[in-house]
User: What shape does this take?
Amino acid sequence: MTLQWTAVAFFLYAEIAVNLILCIPFISAKRWRLVFSLRIWNWLSPYWNKCFFTMIMVLIVLFLDAVREVHKYSGHEPMQDAKVNPNLYDHLHMKLFRAQRNLYISGFSLFLWLIMRRVVTLLNQVAATLENYSDLKARMDDGAKTVKQQQDDNLMLKQALLNEEKSMSAKNHQLKMEVEELVKQVKVAEEAVSRSHSEVEAMKRQAKGLAQEYDRLLTEHHQLQNLQSAAEKKDQ
Assistant: This one.
């Protein structure tokens, strides 16, 4: 195996190992997000896209070269010549095997390179989604507590208003009874005042009659005195 294909093979093994580590179930997406948030990755992030697309281009070139080699050694003419010379036949099959091996190595390396990029992206998205879900759940819990508190406050306010309404109704009924009692008392007072006026009028009429009688008696008294004085004068 040449140096370049040895490097591609080691790169493939490294990709397999990294993808297996990324797919370990007991390591959560939040932990991977913490790992991806390390300072070294922030330092490498400006070069990451360039490195990613460079590796894609290199792997695509190697893959196309392997396809060309497979097509070259699996063609009709080389096989026709190999049937004549047995040594050439074995050599041709060895070349074809190496070309197919290189095709698989480059193809799987390219595939796993894309898969690894996608897995890392999905882990970050899942971690961000979980964080947003946690924040949203906390907000929903706070909102539910606030709504429950408001409902309790509304119930307490309704109960207080109902009690106040009952108290006001009782007070209004009591005031109504007091007003009715006062109205009765006013009527009784009016009747008493009316009777007092009647008695005053009767007393006024009686006093007027007494005054007239007194005047009459006084007149008669004067007349008697005058008659008595006249009788005494005659006797002298």
In short: Residues 3-161 form one domain.
